[in-house]
Write a structure and sequence with these properties.
By secondary structure, this protein is an alpha+beta fold. It folds into four domains: about 130 residues, no CATH class; about 425 residues, 3-Layer(aba) Sandwich (Rossmann fold); about 80 residues, Immunoglobulins (Immunoglobulin-like), CATH 2.60.40; about 130 residues, Immunoglobulin-like. It is built from 19 helices and 47 strands. The strands form 14 sheets. Strands 12, 13, 14, 15, 17, 19, 20 and 23 form an eight-stranded mixed sheet that branches. Helix 9 runs parallel beside helix 10, helix 16 packs across helix 18 and helix 17 crosses helix 18. The relative contact order is 0.09.
């Protein structure tokens, strides 16, 4: 990793006599990051035209980088107390984005050096700057030069790292967009003219319960040796999810694109499959222009539609960094997708080898991906199409060393490798995608390419890999990342071979000359990535996940493989990804994890419930209110449980209450009045932990007083009593009155009154059922006085005679009182019948 470079003091080019006064007044400058390293064999072509306008981005350090990395890991790790406690973008900016003081300081410094910064990003992690080449050279004390690269590509490069005032340099991670050496490439591969024979089963309909192709797509597939969407869905186990009604509904998938697409192509695909997916375009930095593009964007969009037809799609389009001018479009595109937080799943099919990306740019990206994890967003990225030699340029002598692709190698990204899918199954037959070395393949007209994979040179191995069980066979090797054990990719894989490719519709108008039109087969790991994006989106929408997004899935994927590998994954055990044949087939596939295909491809109908089981949640019951010494029963429900019931525990329960560890039922009789803050936790399968908190108020019991029964001897009985709410308890709302033997209610209940504490009569409703009179007040009150006159009561002659002869004993009147929250308390009053009126 690399953030701020050495503190080199720079003096402007001026006469020696002027240097000392200038240094005395000018702020000290510090180089930020490092100058990019041009490939061997590059040739200088001269300066960049001074008036060329460039767009760069100043990436800011997060407020607490270590805390951000820790939280991003914890929120995605089953068993963590922070698991799935996702942040909103506003919460992220407040907690981890650069402070307003830091943003102001950097802006002021840029202004002081003649640059005009734009508005800082919503996440507080970047500041845009648009300026001419000459302004940037002066303001950042650097030089911009045009280079001819091996392979005849023209690039712009800054020969020295940019400089900032020493006071603000520690606040900046990187200045992005000064060079075009780092220019992400679309990771799609077309079938060669002399490719392997067509698949015999391509184009055959498969009843999956999901989208079905029209006859035109099915008819074209065999000649293209490509699979239709229903066949891909069948191979990777979507049918069970479709059968349960899970098709990505309620989910949004963001597609990262650095090129345009033709909406007419997408419309033709949707018409064929009978889908109506919502597609919206979000331009970033002015967008990516117009036209049909290379087919990458169309592939991404159509792959998602065909597998998650009810998900909404946001296509983020930004300009790539090219020979016409550097730019921060690739970074800004990720920044927009993540800081807007409109999508639960993000798919990226553009990449470049780590050495071209550079450590500083990669570190700035990592901060964005940590934000995505903290917000609950899943990012899947294609691992590259040059096998274990990701920097390969196509020349027999250039870039054949071991290397991996960015951003798939990022620790907070799910890297997706490639397989060759020769049989749909059920349970497909796959081998590692490797069509031999590309310069020979291109000459012979076969389909070149191999699934990317290997060991990172930038990132140490994350815990989800280093803690994986031995049964998964992670090699745990070193790739020069400086930490001994390094990040390994890919994490997972799927079909990417253009000879067993995906049938899409592209270039329908023929606007891209020299390229196929309409239905055609296409491959590359750029097809495998959106396939996995669809798996996650459909899982998110499933009933098993209960609306909780899976978020960063790598910890969950490795946990699933540790417990249910055979059920959840298709293990790819044959082939290797030594694309150029120059590395001794170093990364062969084998049982469990390998550097050719990762954990393998998905069996989605089994994998989705396993991943969702890690999203254990407890349904919050809301704040509770009970009465002291009254029996309490509250059952807490857990959601997203698989593989057995969770174990419950609780802190802060009111005295007298306890929780059943097996059932989650809280019961008992509260012993004291007061309010408690309760935290209930549950530990489920696969290490999942969930918790919920609420307040529990215990109020005093209501009381019954001043009970009297008069006028019985004269056969004109009157009953009267007063009810008072308990201390700290809700107001009273209803009372049900049961009379002692010898008394009963008459039908004239209009002779009943209900009075509140201030003496005013209350309106109420009344009913008699099975000898019990129930009065419900129109408004709760702290005190209720009940008066039942003789017209509403009758007595038996025996009771009246006994009262007259003064031979009757005490009688018990029962009143069951309910408060405004529905808590009922049975109260009894002993009364001595009296003959006096």
């Amino acid at each position: 990793m690399l953030s701020v470079g050495c503190g080199c003091v720079l003096a402007a080019l001026m006469p020696t006599s002027a240097v000392a006064p200038a240094l005395a007044s000018a702020p000290r400058l510090v180089r930020v990051g490092a100058a990019p390293q041009a490939p061997a064999g590059s040739r200088a072509l001269g300066i960049v035209t001074p008036g060329t306008r460039l767009h760069i981005t100043v990436a800011l350090e997060p407020r607490d980088p270590a805390a951000l990395q820790s939280y991003a890991s914890a929120v995605a790790t089953p068993g963590s107390s922070a698991y799935h406690r996702y942040l909103t973008p506003a919460e992220f900016a407040q907690r981890f984005g650069a402070s307003s003081a830091a943003i102001s300081a950097v802006r002021d410094s840029l202004l002081a050096h003649g640059l005009t910064p734009g508005v800082a990003s919503a996440n507080g992690l970047s500041i845009p700057v648009t300026a001419t080449a000459s302004s940037l050279e002066q303001g950042l004390s650097t030089t911009l030069e045009r280079l001819a690269l091996p392979g005849r590509r023209i690039a712009i490069v800054n020969r020295v790292a940019p400089s900032l005032d020493a006071a603000v340099a520690p606040l900046v991670q990187d200045v992005i967009g000064l060079d075009t050496l780092a220019s992400p490439q679309p990771l799609l591969v077309r079938r060669g003219a002399l490719a392997r024979p067509a698949l015999a089963h391509a184009g055959a309909h498969v009843a999956t319960g999901g989208p079905q192709p029209c006859s035109a797509a099915s008819a074209a597939a065999p000649g293209q040796s490509a699979y239709t969407a229903d066949q891909i869905a069948s191979a990777y186990g979507f049918s069970g999810l479709y059968g349960a009604g899970d098709e990505g509904q309620g989910q949004t998938i963001a597609l990262y694109e650095l090129e345009p697409d033709d909406p007419a192509d997408i419309a033709a695909f949707q018409q064929c499959y009978g889908t109506h997916a919502s597609i919206s375009y979000v331009p970033v930095d002015g967008g990516a222009g117009s036209g049909a593009g290379s087919g990458e964007a169309a592939l991404d969009i159509e792959a998602v539609i065909g597998l998650a037809p009810k998900a909404s799609i946001l296509v983020y389009q930004a300009p790539n960094s090219d020979s016409n001018g550097p730019g921060a479009g690739p970074y800004d595109n990720f920044s927009a997708i993540i800081s807007q937080d409109r999508a639960q799943v993000i798919s990226a099919s553009w990449g470049q080898c780590e050495s071209l990306e550079g450590a500083a740019d990669a570190r700035a990206e990592e901060t964005l991906f940590e934000e995505a994890a903290a917000q609950g967003q899943t990012i899947v990225s294609a691992s590259g199409d040059d096998g274990s030699e990701d920097c390969f340029t196509g020349s027999p002598l250039a870039g054949t060393g071991l290397a991996v692709d960015d951003p798939s190698s990022q620790p907070f990204v799910t890297g997706v490798g490639g397989t060759s899918l020769s049989s749909l199954g059920p349970r497909p037959t796959e081998t590692t995608w490797n069509n031999g070395d590309s310069f020979v393949g291109a000459t012979l007209g076969t389909s070149p390419g191999a699934g990317g994979g290997g060991i990172s040179s930038l990132w140490p191995m994350p815990a989800y890999q280093s803690n994986a069980p031995a049964t998964l066979r992670l090699p745990l090797g070193s790739g020069g990342c400086g930490a001994g054990r390094c990040r390994e990719v890919p994490d997972v894989s799927a079909d990417a071979d253009p000879d067993t490719g995906y049938e899409i519709y592209w270039n329908g108008t023929g606007s891209v000359s020299g390229q196929p039109t309409g239905w055609q087969g296409i491959g590359g790991t750029s097809a495998a990535a959106p396939m996995w994006a669809a798996v996650i989106a459909v899982a998110n929408s499933s009933q098993a996940c209960h609306g909780s997004a899976l978020g960063f899935v790598n910890p969950g994927l490795y946990a699933a493989a540790a417990t249910a590998y055979a059920a959840d994954f298709n293990d790819v055990t044959t082939g290797n990804n030594d694309f150029t044949g120059t590395n001794g087939n170093q990364y062969p596939a084998g049982p469990g994890y390998d550097l050719a295909t990762g954990l393998g491809s998905p069996n989605a109908s089994s994998l989705a419930p396993t991943l969702c089981a890690q999203t254990l949640r407890i349904a919050n019951p809301g704040d509770q209110s009970s009465t002291v010494h009254a029996r309490v029963t509250l059952r807490l429900d857990s959601l997203g449980v698989a593989g057995g019931s969770p174990t419950y525990s609780a802190r802060g329960l009111p005295s007298g209450l306890s929780i059943n560890a097996s059932t989650g039922e809280i019961s008992g009789k509260p012993r004291s009045i007061g309010t408690s803050s309760v935290l209930v936790s549950a530990s489920g399968s696969y290490g999942a932990v969930a918790s919920t908190s609420f307040r529990w108020s215990i109020g005093g019991a209501p009381t019954l007083s001043r009970a009297s029964l008069t006028g019985v001897g004269q056969r004109r009985p009157q009953l009267r009593f007063t009810l008072n709410r308990g201390r700290g308890a809700p107001d009273l709302e209803a009372v049900a009155i049961a009379l002692p033997r010898g008394l009963r209610f008459a039908s004239r209940i209009r002779d009943v009154t209900l009075t509140e504490a201030g003496g005013a009569r209350l309106r109420f409703t009344a009913r008699i059922a099975r000898g019990v009179l129930t009065l419900t007040a129109s408004a709760p009150a702290s005190r209720l006085t009940v008066a039942v006159r003789y017209a509403a009561l009758t007595t038996s002659s025996g009771l009246a005679a006994a009262v007259a002869d003064r031979r009757s004993g005490r009688l018990t009147v029962t009143a069951t009182v309910a408060d405004a929250l529905g808590h009922a308390t049975r109260l009894r009053a002993s009364v001595k019948p009296s003959g006096a009126r």
